[in-house]
């Protein structure tokens, strides 16, 4: 059916892709139809198909302006569409928020496109605009045809860029931080301590895990990458002792001391028990809230009210639950304080937040915005060398047409809230801005295909919000990356992400340091691969075998391959004049030698895992597992000051190496 093929294209359902092996794969037609059905379209109803084609194609030409008009901030033009026989007229553009009333004459405007339908020729005309500040501006256009409204997005060409220096920083999963004063889980006071220690070592940023709201009624759902809501903060990160109104309050002091007593044995364990921690922290937060209502000073109460008023869009999912709103305010205040500490410590960037690719299918974000999502489709990844059968992440899939609702307000709100009080934002699986792999039920089996999103608009939001907040943006571009995403990231100044483990040439050898990409954040490992000490000692392979994730045969193969990879790493070090190592060398010595080489690479940011400074061997996460291994629970071995006591001078050396080779 020709109409169905057209609708598949207009709705963003992919036709084919190039697999990681270089193989050209054409998607099964049944799979593509199922993607449309997931968007609520009856693929057997020809009348409905024609209606959707009209809405997505023809109607766009019969509307004078679209709901959103993207223009260049300096020399933009506004696209309007009119019938050719009404081509010459004068019009008025009004933008009340900018006090702009701008008259234009279409006889002086260029024609940029045309479309013919039912005997009428429609023209797209580019109306030159005066320069306007970066942002979203509601506009009204008055023409002889009538009055029309649009939201003009005054868009910069690039995301915000920090000073053009080679920066070094650390990454951490905040919950893993160990300290005498926290309640069994790393919190914002621990983060302040990490910032100070990092800054003293010469670091310019701290990269965090997603801080998204999880499930306080199901504390064991600990993955920050499958959150309840990405626009809200997990209250477990609040430092409950760091609030003015509870200081010297006898009731709170006694409750806090009791919590320390109850958690004493638990804090010595290698893994977090979220049920135990949540019970203690939420009880103390609830007590803090009661004290706040009774004893907070007027400025504090006004600050809380202003927070609720200024963040209505993202807070509405909490349905006027004042305790939950209080927790969000307190978390936001403490996060802002952390970024201020970073600035006061002369960090060039400060905190870098992390935006997960999706949310849980039963969380607040999904249930309050379910109209924007497809039904029965989940996002994941196609087969790759690390998951030969592909991956289903269990996250619901946004409908690429419905996400345009209300001028992309949903996406704008997510980006804006995650850029609050930070100097940068990492976008998990940045390819999702362009396309996502949909896992679809097909009769008795699972199938999948790529579905494409309004890339230009989503990218424009990032560029706008990045500049408004003066925060850099990093796109996690590991895996199969379409060429148009590569070029768009470069043009928009989105930094890419290099994971050293995966940087191999066509012969399987590690890429030379000076050949690594410049506009990137470079790291040896992240949360999805083992820490270096664990990798070097093959502890990750032993662990997978222990948890029955590898057969005996596969285990032997993995161990043999790891020896090969270690020898390749030694050869790589020798190529960079780091000699004297063999496969039995001490992991920390090899790790430091690697960083000395990578410090001289062209990569814009060099990121050191706190796990690696801690010489941790246990992974924080084993991809492809859920309950088999205690993911997202493993603590650090030592406190932040203890970790930096033996690493500050080394990090300073790396900083000097970086700056001397800029």
UniProtKB/TrEMBL annotation:
The keyword ATP-binding is annotated on this UniProt entry: no
Record's keyword terms, sorted: Carbohydrate metabolism, Glycosyltransferase, Transferase
Origin superkingdom: Bacteria
Catalytic activity from the UniProt record: Transfers a segment of a (1->4)-alpha-D-glucan to a new position in an acceptor, which may be glucose or a (1->4)-alpha-D-glucan
UniProt EC number: 2.4.1.25
Keyword Cytoplasm: no
Alphabetical list of SUPFAM superfamilies matching this protein: (Trans)glycosidases
EC category: transferase
BP GO annotations: carbohydrate metabolic process
One Pfam family this sequence matches: Glyco_hydro_77
Molecular function terms, GO-annotated: 4-alpha-glucanotransferase activity
Family, per entry: Belongs to the disproportionating enzyme family.
Protein name as it appears in the record: 4-alpha-glucanotransferase
Source organism: Pseudoalteromonas aurantia
């Amino acid at each position: 059916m020709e109409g169905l093929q057209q609708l598949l294209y207009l709705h963003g359902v992919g036709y084919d892709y190039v697999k990681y092996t270089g193989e050209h794969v054409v998607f099964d037609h049944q799979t593509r139809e199922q993607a449309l059905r997931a968007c609520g379209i009856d693929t057997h109803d020809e009348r409905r198909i024609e209606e959707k084609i009209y809405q997505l194609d023809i109607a766009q030409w019969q509307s004078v302006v679209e709901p959103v008009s993207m223009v260049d901030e300096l020399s933009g033009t506004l696209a309007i569409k009119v019938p050719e026989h009404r081509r010459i007229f004068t019009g008025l553009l009004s933008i009340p928020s900018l006090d702009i009333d701008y008259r234009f004459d279409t006889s002086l405007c260029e024609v940029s496109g045309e479309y013919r339908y039912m005997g009428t020729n429609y023209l797209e005309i580019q109306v030159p605009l005066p320069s306007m500040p970066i942002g979203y501006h509601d506009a009204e256009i008055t023409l002889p045809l009538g009055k029309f409204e649009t939201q003009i997005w005054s868009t910069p060409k690039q995301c915000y860029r920090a000073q053009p220096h080679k920066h070094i920083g650390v990454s951490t999963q905040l919950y893993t931080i160990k300290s005498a004063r926290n309640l069994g889980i790393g919190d914002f006071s621990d983060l302040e301590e990490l910032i100070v220690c990092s800054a003293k070592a010469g670091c310019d940023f701290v990269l965090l895990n997603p801080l998204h709201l999880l499930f306080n009624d199901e504390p064991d759902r600990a993955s920050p990458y499958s959150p309840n809501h990405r626009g809200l903060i997990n209250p477990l990160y609040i430092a409950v002792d760091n609030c003015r109104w509870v200081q010297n309050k006898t009731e709170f002091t006694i409750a806090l001391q009791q919590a320390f007593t109850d958690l004493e044995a638990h804090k010595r364990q290698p893994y977090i028990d979220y049920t135990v921690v949540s019970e203690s922290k939420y009880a103390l937060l609830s007590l803090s809230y009661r004290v706040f209502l009774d004893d907070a000073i007027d400025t504090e109460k006004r600050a809380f009210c202003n927070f609720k008023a200024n963040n209505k869009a993202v807070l509405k999912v909490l349905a006027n639950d004042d305790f939950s709103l209080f927790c969000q305010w307190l978390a936001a205040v403490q996060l802002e304080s952390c970024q201020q500490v970073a600035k006061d410590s002369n960090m060039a960037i400060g905190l870098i937040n992390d935006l997960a690719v999706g949310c849980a299918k039963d969380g607040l974000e999904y249930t309050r915005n379910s109209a924007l999502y497809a039904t029965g489709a989940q996002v994941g990844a196609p087969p790759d060398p690390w998951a030969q059968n592909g991956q289903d992440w269990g996250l619901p899939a946004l409908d690429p047409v419905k996400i345009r609702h209300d001028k992309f307000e949903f996406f704008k709100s997510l980006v804006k809230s995650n850029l609050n009080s930070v100097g940068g934002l990492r976008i998990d699986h940045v390819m999702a801005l362009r396309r996502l792999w949909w896992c679809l039920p097909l009769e008795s089996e699972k199938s999948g295909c790529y579905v494409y999103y309004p890339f230009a608009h989503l990218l424009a939001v990032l560029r706008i919000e990045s500049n408004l907040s003066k925060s850099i943006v990093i796109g996690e571009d590991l895996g199969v990356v379409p060429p148009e995403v590569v070029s768009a990231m470069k043009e928009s100044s989105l930094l890419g992400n290099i994971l050293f483990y995966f940087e191999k040439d066509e012969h399987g050898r590690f890429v030379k340091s000076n050949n690594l990409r410049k506009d990137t954040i470079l790291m040896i490992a992240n949360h999805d691969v083992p820490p270096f000490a664990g990798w070097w000692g093959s502890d990750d392979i032993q662990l997978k075998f222990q948890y029955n994730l590898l057969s005996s045969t596969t285990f032997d193969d993995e161990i043999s391959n790891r020896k090969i990879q270690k020898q390749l790493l030694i050869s790589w070090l020798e190529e960079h004049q780091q000699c004297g190592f063999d496969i039995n060398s001490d992991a920390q010595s090899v790790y430091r030698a690697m960083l000395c080489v990578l410090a001289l690479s062209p990569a814009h940011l060099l990121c050191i895992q706190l796990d690696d400074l801690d010489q941790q061997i246990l992974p924080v996460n084993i991809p492809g597992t859920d309950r088999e291994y205690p993911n997202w629970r493993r603590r650090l071995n030592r406190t932040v000051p203890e970790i930096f006591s033996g690493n500050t001078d080394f990090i300073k050396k790396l900083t000097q190496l970086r700056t001397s080779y800029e």
